[in-house]
Each structure stands twice: as C-alpha cells, then as structure tokens.
Automatic annotation (TrEMBL):
Keywords, in A-Z order: ATP-binding, Hydrolase, Iron, Iron-sulfur, Metal-binding, Nucleotide-binding
Organism whose genome encodes this protein: Desulfococcus multivorans DSM 2059
PANTHER family named among the record's database cross-references: CYTOSOLIC FE-S CLUSTER ASSEMBLY FACTOR NUBP2, NUCLEOTIDE-BINDING PROTEIN NBP35 YEAST -RELATED
Domain of life: Bacteria
Name of the protein this chain belongs to: Iron-sulfur cluster carrier protein
Amino acid sequence: MEMITGGDCKSSQQKQKQSEQDAALEDSLRKIKQIFMVMSGKGGVGKTSVSVNLAMALAKKGFKVGIMDVDIHGPDVPRMLGIQKEMLGVNANRKLTPLAYSDNLSAVSIESLSASKDDAIIWRGPMKHSVIRQFISDVEWGELDYLIIDSPPGTGDEPLSVAQTISGAKAIIVTTPQEVSLADVRKSINFCQTIKMEIFGLIENMSGFKCPHCGEAIDMFGTGGGEKTASDFGIHFLGRIPFEPKIVACGDSGSCYQEIYKTSPVTLAFEAVAERMAKLNG
Ligand SMILES: Nc1ncnc2c1ncn2[C@@H]1O[C@H](COP(=O)(O)OP(=O)(O)OP(=O)(O)O)[C@@H](O)[C@H]1O
C-alpha cells in the first residue's frame, strides 16, 4: 500500500512539474510573434552566418529579435556576434537571461553555458529535445518580434524537436547555388512537408563573387539555382547573399561582420532579405 501511495505521489509531482513546464513554454511562446528555423540539408552552407546576419538586419530595422542556437554540437552564434566571452545569467524568477548584443538583439546558446568552450558535447536525442524545450520555457526572452533559430545541418533530432516543441515555427532554408546543395534542399523541403512545418522561404548564400582586384563578377558555385528551386516548389525566394571572404575573417576572429562593414554588398543583401521578410509578414 505504502509503495503504491509513494508511487502515486511521485507521479503526481512529476505531472505537476510537467504542467508547470508546459505553462512556462506556452507563456514564452505567447510573447514571440514570429519564429523562424534556419536550416539546410548540407553542412557549411552558411546557416549560422545567415541566422546571425539576418537577426542583425531585422534588429537594425527596429524589431526586437532573439537568436536561439540549437546547433548543440557546433554552437557558433556567440562567436559570430562577438559576445563569446559572455555567459547566460539567471534572474529573480530563476529564468535564464539571454546574452544581450544590444537593446533589441539577444541570443541563447549552449556555448554560453559550457565551462570549457572546447568541450565536445555528446548528447543523445532526448537530452537535446529537453534542452531545446528549455531554451524556450526557461529563458526570459520577453516580448519578441522575431525569434531566429539556428539549427545544425540535416534533418535530425534538433529540427524535429523544434517542430514538435514550437508548432508555429516556419522554416527558412539556406543553400549554396551548386547542384549538390540544391539536391539536399529538396530533402529539407520533403522533411518540412513530412513534419508539416511551413516553409517560409529560401536564401541562396555564397551566390557570386566580385574579384576585389579587378571587380570582375565570378560565379564560383553558379548562381540562380536557389531561385529556380524555390520557384519549382512554390516557396518564396528571399534573396541572394554574395560570397565575401571578410565574412570568414570576421567569423574566425569573433567579430560581427555588419558592425564593421556597414554598407557592403553583403550587408545590403541581408537588409534586403530582412525587408522582404517584414513585408511578407504583413
Ligand atoms: N556569404 C559568404 N561568403 C563567404 N564565406 C561565407 C559566407 N557565408 C558563410 N561563410 C563562411 O562559410 C563557413 C561556414 O559558415 P557557417 O558556419 O555559417 O555555416 P553553417 O551552415 O552554419 O555550418 P555548419 O554546417 O557547421 O552548421 C564559415 O567559415 C563562414 O564564415
């Protein structure tokens, strides 16, 4: 009898905790107007660069923006924002406070929780799911116009967890122009259709390169494939971001590209994508 009572008691405590967590999740989600998950079928196409620069461009337009880094194994968002030395805080309500890049741009990343930045993170699917949930429910995001979620490449645990946790999240797919990337885009589109996640649009990154010496335009990986794929699948084409070696240098040195190159073609291209997103959101 005692054992049964004890078991019942524990399970009711667990139920109570679960319902508190569900309520906290709902409360956080209610305050966020638009949630976009930036994804790609293939690694290294520039998802994190796009997430960070898009968030910055939206913040420059005056929107309140958060970036959630769910690339658990390779979290790069804090470094690309140049705030890699900051750590997440805890407020009086025992919620995590995001890293503040500016008054209207904040970020949360596993990187800002780990004691050693070089530790490899080895987590199984259910643990990742729990972290992604907590990154919404246990973080004091406050009122946001946009939450941009940077996910790892492919169609694994993380994008699935985002879809399961945040029913209104929409996908932004990043690709590079070459066919091998575009083939992976088609897999991402199928994934979104299978899990019933709305696809908001597609961005073609590393699209064309202007030689810094002679100014000649060179299509290293081709150009236009992203727009054609978007049109074939009936999804919005949000824009093209040129190839720019200084993005690499900024990422490597931990400085924010748009802060330094305020009027470069890449900065203008991100501003145009942000403008288009804002217009499409009405
Ligand atoms: N438009 C661009 N021009 C030049 N280099 C770029 C551009 N976009 C991204 N890069 C560089 O490409 C590399 C990969 O970018 P990034 O880390 O953003 O990609 P990712 O898709 O998030 O990678 P991962 O698959 O590891 O998650 C980085 O060195 C980054 O600086």
